[in-house]
Amino acid sequence: MASALQSTVELLSNVTEAFTAALFLFGNDKNELRIAAFHTLSKKLDEDVVIHPGGGIIGWVAKNGQAVNIPNFDRRINSLGIYDDEEEIKSFLAVPVGQEGVLSVDSKQTYLFTDKDQKILEGFAHLFQNLVKAERLKNREKSYAKMLSLLHVVDQTCGRAEDLECFCSDVLEVVREFTGTELGFFASLDRSSKRYRVEKAVGLSDPNFEGTSYPATSGLAGWIYRERQPLILRRIRDKEKRSYVFSTKDPIKKFQSFIGWPLEAGNKRIGIMGVVGLEPKEWNADQMAVLSMTVRWVGATMGAWPDKEGD
Questions:
Q1: pTM (2 decimals)?
Q2: Do the beta carbons of residue 294 and residue 151 sit within 8 Å?
């Protein structure tokens, strides 16, 4: 989709004779806008700018869903928020792209954008809206196909489970692949409930956590054990960088995403299962629901194992 967005923005720029034409799209959480495509004559455009709804003129358009046409732009450049330095912008026009984002053009000429230009821009915005919706529908279909595939594979894995170690390895691998993470692990609890031991780890070969043991209160895994609740961290922010999976001596100190679940069968505590990602993730509610179903399935299978004891 990126190439289609870019070529369309370039066409828009030529049609309107814009100094900069830019398409801003929301992320999944709708909390921020980022540039998805642009065409500019400026060397000062901040390609990585993040705009929040209500912040500046572009943020205002996003929040209120109304077009803005400023024919004689005399405000401070910071009110646009897309340039690193002064560019002497004189005209500015922006329209909402449905609920998906904002489309804007600007110029160093005053009174450049007419009512006709606004209608043209709104037509382009409608086109962009359709392109984005079609791409999201395609991605949603792919996501649902992956969910069904995950459930199918887990069903097969649980049905043929004969060896606990192989079962753990197979389940962790498919869950790790589904979540797009680098490490999957399973930890068991000792009979005293004072420590947990990493029985299986897949993905990263270095470091190898298998066989390591930690106090039951240690790390994110320890939190899951204490609270008996799942923990989902899609994006570890700077102030959270002190978080660690198992202990303060973990070699993985810059992980950016994490999911962990308590494994239980009824009131029987089996252990802890988790995945660790080195990049932020955008797991949605549907994906998390399927993962929760998978974890319950795995817990029930492991709980029925004759030689597996809980606390």
A1: 0.61
A2: yes
